[in-house]
Amino acid sequence: MYIVEEFPRLFSIETSGKSLKTPFFVPAISSIKADWEIFGYVDLIEKVGYPGFLISAYDIFKLEKKEKKILMKVLSNYTDKRVFVFLDNGNYEAYWYKNNTWSLNKLKTVLARVYPDFCFSFDIFWDGDRSVKKHVKETITSIAKTAGMQKTGSTIALIHSNPELFPKVTRKIVDYINPEIVAIPERELGFSVFQKSQTVKKIRDELDRTKKPIPIHILGTGNPISILIFTLCGADMYDALDWSNAFVDPKTGQLFHFSQKDLVDCQCKVCKMKKVPYNYQVLAHNLIFYVEFLDKIRDSIRNEEIDVVLNEYLREEDVSKIKRVIGSK
User: Fold this and answer.
1) How far apart are CA 157 and CA 263, in angstroms?
2) E strand or H helix that includes residue 183
3) Which of 114, 127, 263, 277 is at 20 to 30 A from 253, Cα to Cα?
4) pLDDT digits (tens, 9 = 90+) for 205-234
5) Coil, strand or helix: which one is 52?
6) Which residues of the chain have pLDDT under 70?
């Protein structure tokens, strides 16, 4: 994988003849809160032409033999195309299904047959009773084991901690194994969006001191306003299920309930189509929104006009708070 910082705070990531630009949102596909089968979501993403998606190792593992074989072929085709396949380690689904048997070895059986562009390392969850040194050591071991199981692609170093220790923990892991991309869960960054943004900024500052181009991926972030704020504070990539269970108002970036599309006057090419199934219309609309929204953020950074995009989506007093966090006048 080749990562270059094309502009302050903007990365270009290239692998296997494919490239993506940050900020980048990865639509997650999960059996949790799903209305369709996995194949339905994958098919829609391809038809819309979205450049990547995330799928769960747990969901792949649980498929029937015939379905699994079909999905393996589908994923293999995507890997060969200009579509990025992200593989989640499966712990999210295992948690919600209360499956305590999910393990690194079961992830290994999936990686033996799936060839993702990126795979998130197996979680080592934060335990306040454990020392930072031990937590870092166990996290590094898990990252190395996950990487050793992958036949292709890069391992994204998934790091757990708390708001106060995240910069320190992340730096220690980066200094030891030099990961290409680090991932952190949004829920562990703090409570309010402002506390979370401050934690992101501190992690970014620590990574910048290494003088290495290391993108930050935030797990569980799909809210457009949060993506905007976290990007300006130093994050680069995101994934979440929001795209599949909500409707994005393109004017405000706010998320409406999935059933409330008709309450928003949207004139995008998908919403203007007639005789299109409701579910398809909402999901396609959301994917198109993310592409255009991320382009807007990217352009505002490149043109040094972040005030324009901030004022479009946030109140004046909130813009001032965020600018103080990022150190902008």
Assistant:
1) 41
2) strand 182-185
3) 277
4) 999 999 999 999 999 999 999 999 999 999
5) strand
6) 79, 329
Q: Which residue has the tokens 């198109």?
A: 288
The Cα 312–Cα 300 span in angstroms is 12
Which residue type sits at 256?
A: F
Query: Using CA atoms, how far apart are residues 59 and 80, in angstroms rounded to an integer?
Result: 22
- Please tell me the distance from the alpha carbon of residue 283 to that of residue 246, in angstroms, as a whole number: 8
- For residue 123, give every residue at least 6 positions away whose Cβ sits within 8 Å of its Cβ, in sequence order, or none: 89, 91, 142, 158, 160
Domains of the chain: 2-246 (3.20.20.105)
Which of helix, strand or coil describes residue 10? strand
* 84-88 vs 118-120, strand pairing mode: parallel
3-state helix, strand, coil in the chain (%, to 5): 50, 20, 35
In the block, tokens 């909500």 appear at: 246
The 10s digit of each residue's pLDDT in 228-278 is 999 999 999 999 999 999 999 999 999 999 999 999 999 899 998 888 899
The residue with tokens 């795209």 is 243
Cβ distance 170 to 206 under 8 Å? yes
* 149, 150, 154, 157 alpha-carbon torsion, rounded to 10°: -30
Alpha helices in 97-210 (DSSP H): 104-111, 132-149, 166-177, 193-208
Is residue 325 within 8 A of residue 194, CB to CB? The reply is yes
Phi and psi for 201 in degrees, rounded to 5? -60, -40
For Cα atoms 256, 260, 264, give the angle at the middle one, nearest 5 degrees.
Answer: 80
The answer for residues whose C-beta is within 8 angstroms of residue 203's C-beta and 6 or more apart is 166, 167, 170, 184, 216, 234
pLDDT of residue 74: 84
Give CA separation, 227 vs 244, 263, 301, in Å. Answer: 16, 24, 14
